[in-house]
Amino acid sequence: LDIVHNFLYLLLPVHTLPKFVIENLHITAKIACYPKALERYSSTQMNRGGRVVIMTNEYNRVGSTLAMAYLIAGEGKSLKEAWATLRRAYLALRPRWEFLDRLAVFEQKVRNLPDPIKIADEDFL
């Protein structure tokens, strides 16, 4: 279980959280990687003072991508800021270039940028 940002956690479903951990962390919601609802649902939970766990089979891929997408859309972070936030929580995280390219296009749409911001190796290592 890794803390991504204030109220957001990542977890592989093969790991189960004992009830006392859920209670101690004050987790109020679990999301099993349904991207369309993630941003709206996570924001609602955050505004209520809740905490959210994103559960995924592909920890380095889908879960981290969804967490970064939430940070971009829900908290207005840039892709680089979202990456830095996730990297602080999970030091072993490595870039998946195909997902970073898609997130750059997502950031362009969300932030209404004329073009996607170029991704450089040194920014994501």
UniProtKB/TrEMBL annotation:
UniProt-listed InterPro entries: Prot-tyrosine_phosphatase-like (IPR029021)
The protein's name: TYR_PHOSPHATASE_2 domain-containing protein
Species for this entry: Taenia asiatica (Asian tapeworm)
